């Protein structure tokens, strides 16, 4: 095919494909080609080369800044050393492809100073200084399509290693995160992969940082003792009001069980707010969320910066109907050693723990859809 028969511009395009040709390439005769095509080819190659360089620099700078920002915010999340049992109390063996399980702990630190997060002014644990007011097992499925959150009421009567039987919230007071993890693992035989801890100061600050949450109360709850009245309807709660909502149990028909459902209801509202804002699907917003969480939450030191960011990013496809809340199966109330306690239904609980351990929570929820332990749409 002659030059005249080629499509217009093919000669120049052919030259542009080879960006590493020498810029001083000349016609074999040493003379400029007819029409000045050789200089135009050189200018075209040079233009393409510099365009690629600029694009790489711009993209590399932006990507580098995003990575740096994510790492910076992830680094701001306070880490808890020695958060897991050791020695003879070592953790259950990890089962591949069965997701991850977090232990979420809310502390009643009885302190005006923050004890969790990067702004903590006091330790996350001191002997006898804190009890875990909230305990939830959060299981994230291996395919990252569902999350199951199971509350264990703080008054649940369980064996605490080295201390005999007691309310489960005493484990944190006596031995901090490691004893809390060991107690829950012995109870459920589920390996705890990570633990996250927040105190009430952090809870209040986190709620305010996201602009508050909307909670619907289906019926008016009358004031009783120190408990305030809650009018039926939707309330936009700031941190202080949300804290009152999740901590109250007086005036609720099932006491501590209803309080755990309030805590789940709050967490559900917080998750919905996060999902609906597109935070999990936006790298920029996600780094901001990590910054907010880092201000108030402490996590175990096994959770690296990349683990934290990768986990959050992997959950971007989660939808509200893929997040499920429930209480550990209830076996009744009792009074033991002068204490009002909650008993667990060990048989029913065993089925739940087996499902969580084997990453079969969707199957479990289908079979127990009508269970009174699952969180409904209406929460007192």
What does this structure look like?
The protein has helices at 10-16, 37-75, 170-188, 200-209, 239-247, 256-276, 283-296, 305-314, 346-357, 361-367, and strands at residues 78-80, 100-108, 131-140, 147-151, 157-160, 164-167, 194-199, 213-217, 233-237, 298-300, 323-327, 330-336, 339-344. Helix 2 packs parallel to helix 7 and helix 4 (200-209) crosses helix 5. A hairpin with a 2-residue loop joins strand 12 (330-336) and strand 13. It is of the alpha/beta class and 380 residues long. The longest helix is centred in the first third of the chain and has 39 residues, at 37-75. It has a seven-stranded mixed sheet, sandwiched between helices. 39% of the residues lie in helices and 19% in strands. Residues 2-32 and 53-69 have low confidence and may be disordered. It is globular. It contains ten helices and 13 strands.
Topology, element by element:
Blueprint (H helix, E strand, L loop, with lengths): L9 H7 L20 H39 L2 E3 L19 E9 L22 E10 L6 E5 L5 E4 L3 E4 L2 H19 L5 E6 H10 L3 E5 L15 E5 L1 H9 L8 H21 L6 H14 L1 E3 L4 H10 L8 E5 L2 E7 L2 E6 L1 H12 L3 H7 L13
Parallel strand pairs: 1-10, 2-7, 4-11
Antiparallel strand pairs: 2-3, 3-4, 5-6, 7-10, 8-9, 12-13
Helix pairs in contact: 1-2, 2-7, 2-8, 4-5, 4-7, 5-6
């Amino acid at each position: 095919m002659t030059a005249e028969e080629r499509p217009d511009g093919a000669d120049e395009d052919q030259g542009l494909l080879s960006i590493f040709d020498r810029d001083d390439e000349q016609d074999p005769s040493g003379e400029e080609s007819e029409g000045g095509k050789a200089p135009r080819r050189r200018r075209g190659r040079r233009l393409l080369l510099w365009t690629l360089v600029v694009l790489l620099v711009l993209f590399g700078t932006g990507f580098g800044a995003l990575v740096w920002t994510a790492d910076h915010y992830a680094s701001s999340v306070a880490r808890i050393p020695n958060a897991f049992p050791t020695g003879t109390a070592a953790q259950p063996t990890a089962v591949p492809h069965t997701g991850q399980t977090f232990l979420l702990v809310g502390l009643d630190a009885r302190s005006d100073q923050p004890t969790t997060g990067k702004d903590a002014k006091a330790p996350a644990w001191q002997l006898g200084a804190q009890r875990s007011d909230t305990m939830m097992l959060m299981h994230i499925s291996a395919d990252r399509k569902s999350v199951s959150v199971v509350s264990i009421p703080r008054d649940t009567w369980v064996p605490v290693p080295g201390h005999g039987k007691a309310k489960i919230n005493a484990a944190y007071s006596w031995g901090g995160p490691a004893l809390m993890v060991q107690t829950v693992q012995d109870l459920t035989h589920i390996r705890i992969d990570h633990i996250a801890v927040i105190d009430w100061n952090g809870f209040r600050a986190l709620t305010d940082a996201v602009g508050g949450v909307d909670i619907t109360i289906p019926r008016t709850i009358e004031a009783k003792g120190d408990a305030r009245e809650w009018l039926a309807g939707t309330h936009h709660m700031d941190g202080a009001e949300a804290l009152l909502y999740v901590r109250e149990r007086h005036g609720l028909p099932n006491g501590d069980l209803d309080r755990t459902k309030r805590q789940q209801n709050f967490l559900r509202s917080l998750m919905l707010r996060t999902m609906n804002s597109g935070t999990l699907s936006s790298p920029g917003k996600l780094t901001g969320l990590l910054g907010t969480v880092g201000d108030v939450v402490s996590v175990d030191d096994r959770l690296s910066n990349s683990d934290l960011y990768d986990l959050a990013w992997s959950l971007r496809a989660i939808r509200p109907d893929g997040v499920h809340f429930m209480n550990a199966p209830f076996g009744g109330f009792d009074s033991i050693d002068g204490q009002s306690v909650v008993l667990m239904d060990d048989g029913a609980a065993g089925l739940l723990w087996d499902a969580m351990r084997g990453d079969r929570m969707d199957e479990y929820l289908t079979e127990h859809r009508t269970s009174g332990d699952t969180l409904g749409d209406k929460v007192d």
